[in-house]
Design a protein that fits this description.
Blueprint (H helix, E strand, L loop, with lengths): L1 H68 L2 H23 L7 H12 L65
Helix pairs in contact: 1-2
Length: 178
Amino acid sequence: MDRMDHLEHLDKHLVDELAQVARETIRDELRQQTRKQRRKATLYAASGAVALYAGAAVALAVGLALAAVLPDWAAALITAAILAVVAYLLRGAARPHAPGTPHGRAEMAADRAHGAAPPVGPGNAPYPPVPSAPPTPPGRATAPTDAPGADTPGPGAPAPGPLLRPDRIDPENPHHRA
């Protein structure tokens, strides 16, 4: 039994040493990745600061060019308005648009024109096409339309015929209003 206790001690020691090596290896990997990401973030911050100064220089040049032909206050006002419009356009370009908004519809049309897949709903099922007009309940008259196929009933729609009146409803045939 003394030999088995010795082997158990060696096994436990080996497992502890292996766990320590694994922890150190993972820690070193994380340190290297952190250094790389820190360097990349520093470079992005520096490029952003330089771009800010470059934008200020361009704004100054535009203001000075306008000041040559306009009063100084008008040149400064026009420069500020140009910068505000550019900032608004950049903000709009960075913000995602919902599919129902005009920008979202334009994006979806552009995506379809370039062969992009249609948006998908829950479970990656494609959204059904949206009808151009809201549905009307059976038995109600609709305004005439020039849309092709508008005069033919869709699948599952009742055949055109006389309107159902309460005195003509068959009590044996249940109907549900949902």
